[in-house]
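Re: beginner question about structure tokens

> Can someone show what the tokenized structure looks like for a real chain? I only ever see the sequence side.

Sure, here's an example I had lying around. Input first:
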Amino acid sequence: MSEKAEVLVVMSKVKAYIKNKAGMNVSASVASALSEKVAAICDSAIENAQSAKRKTVMDKDI
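And the corresponding structure tokens:
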């Protein structure tokens, strides 16, 4: 992910989830790696919605 790319996740929530679930810390690089995964999922969902000729991405597109 490029340095100018937007972070697509709320890192405080991710950190809290991981801390509560496993008692582990989260490195700073997780934000960009996780955002890349979220962007890829969103891109795929957009394609699925467009294929269905919709302008709304729905849960079934993911």
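Each token stands for a local structural state, so reading them left to right follows the chain. Residues 29-62 form one domain.
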